[in-house]
Each structure stands twice: as structure tokens, then as C-alpha cells.
Amino acid sequence: MWAPGIVHHGTRRRRAAYRRVVWSGAEVLVTVGVVLLLLVAHQLWWTNRQARQDAEHKVQALEREWGTAGTPGAAGAAPGGDDSGSGSASGSGSGAGTGDGGQDGKNGAGASTGTASSRGASSDSARTTPRWSQAYAVLGIPRLSLRVPVAEGVSKADVLNKGYVGHYKGTQQPGQAGNFALAGHRNTHGEPFRYLPRLRRGDTITVETRSAVYTYVVDRTLPQTSPSDGGVIRPVPRSIVRPSYGYSEPGYYITLTTCTPDYTSRYRMAVWGKLTAMRPR
After folding, report:
1. Measured distance CA(135)–CA(145) in Å, rounded
2. What are the Cα distances from residue 244, in Å, to 75, 86, 98, 231, 259?
3. How far apart are CA 13 and CA 239, in angstroms?
4. 63 to each of 44, 69, 169, 187, how far by Cα in Å?
5. Helix (H) or strand (E) holding 13
6. What's domain 49-280's architecture?
């Protein structure tokens, strides 16, 4: 006869088995959580640390190779005059939306000076086409305290994940007529373009090569577009997705592209500038 308070051995065994299953499941969840935390730490901290160190060493190596002592913003000391191209270069979506970034601009006096002075260096760039993934220039953005190598191509493994900025194959080289277009990570792997939205119209961008230092001035910003919007890197850059952003006349342009918003590759943003000066080494 069954009496209250008596637990059969089968019931105890089932309860013990249940506790073991719950405990094992909890251990698995904790292990998975720790692994995920380590992966996040690796992506957000270690890849940045390693890529930044590699990029800094490459900049120093290029400077030694060129026989110069690089100083942040030094190339920006060669202003080219007034750039009268109209357009908004707000780094945020709201700023670009309220500005006149969609209007077509004319090359001003500064741009003309840079254009004329860059022709000799343009032929030099054409004669020395960089090898794939070769670092051959240094991009400097004083507002962002950034000095980073520029390498040929936009391969993640060979260029971008090293903390470098990549040059879009098929676009022009520094100082050449057309569009010198670059891409860089915004998050992880050195994230050189982490603060690209902070750029404003009038900020300077320098590109140093073995033979010359080119100074561009930020002119406009496209805050958001599709990753497949190839118009932003055409010789005369103009968005295909948002045609009110861009240019309609040939010139000497630079384009900086990166993913947006943070921690996603759903969209792209672009910052455009115009060449204003060239200083031979």
C-alpha cells in the first residue's frame, strides 16, 4: 500500500537524470557564451590592435623608403587657394540632407591650380602602376588624426583587414584627372574610416607618394547609398541611387567610401574632395 512521503527509486532516478541534463545544458550555454565573448573581443579589440600596429609600421617603412620623416598634417600645409565648388560635406545623414550636397559645382581657382600642377606627377603615377595589394602611398586626414597606408585593390584579406585603405582598381591614381577612389573599414581590423562621418567641407586630405604630396579638400558627402552604387567611384562621381549627390563635370576628385551605419555593411557612405595642390618631394 502506498503511503504519503515515500518516493519510489524510479522517481528519484528520473529527477537525478533531469538535474544532470539541466546542469549539462547550463555548462554548454556558459561555454558557448564564453566562446562568443572571446570572438567578440578578438574582432573588436585584437584585430584593431594588430591591424593598427601593422599599418603604422608600413607607414614608417614607406617613409624610410622615401627618405622622409612623415609628420601628421604636414602635406596639408600646401593650400591651393579657394575652391568654389558648391555642395554639402556634412559627415552625418541629417547634415547632408539639409545642405546643398546635390548641386553641381564648378572647379574654383584652387582646384584649377591643383589640376595644372599635378599633370607632371600624373604621368609619373601612370608609369609606376602599383602591384596588386602593394602599399604605395600614405593617406593623411588631419581632422581624424589619421595616417594610413594606401594599397592597390580592395581585397579584405590582402588589404583592408591589414588596416590599410584600398584603392579601387580601375579608378585613377593620385593627382590624375578623374577619381582617385578608396575604401576602408569602419569597424574592426584597424577601422581607419571609423570617424569618416566627422569630416566637413573644407577639411584637408593628403596623399603622399614617392614623388609628390597631393592635397585634396573635402567638398561633399553622400551619407548613405547602396553597396552596389558604382556611380560614386566613376571618373565624374555621381550616385546612381541618389542622383542629386555628385558632380557633372570632369575634375580631379578623391572619393572615400566605407560601410554605414556602425557595425553593419547594409549601406555605404562616400566623402568626395577636390585636388587643390601638388607639392613635389
Report:
1. 20
2. 32, 13, 13, 12, 20
3. 69
4. 29, 6, 24, 26
5. helix 9-41
6. Beta Barrel (2.40)
Active site amino acids: 185, 259, 268
Task: Return d(Cα 96, Cα 258) in angstroms, integer.
Answer: 16
Segment 5-22 mean pLDDT: 70
- 201-260 pLDDT, tens digit per residue, is 999 999 999 999 999 999 999 999 999 999 999 999 999 999 999 999 999 999 999 999
What is the spatial distance between Cα 164 and Cα 52, in angstroms, rounded to a whole number?
9
Per-residue pLDDT reduced to its tens digit, 22-50: 777 777 676 666 556 556 554 555 778 89
Distances (CA, A) of 133 to 78, 129, 153, 160, 211: 29, 12, 6, 9, 20
Rounded to two decimals, the pTM is: 0.69
Question: Is 197 buried (19+), middle (13-18) or exposed (0-12) by CB count in 10 A?
Answer: buried
Q: In sequence order, what are the residues at sequence separation of 6 or more whose Cβ sits closer than 8 angstroms to the Cβ of residue 271?
A: 89, 91, 196, 199, 218, 220, 221, 222, 255, 256, 257
Length of the chain: 281
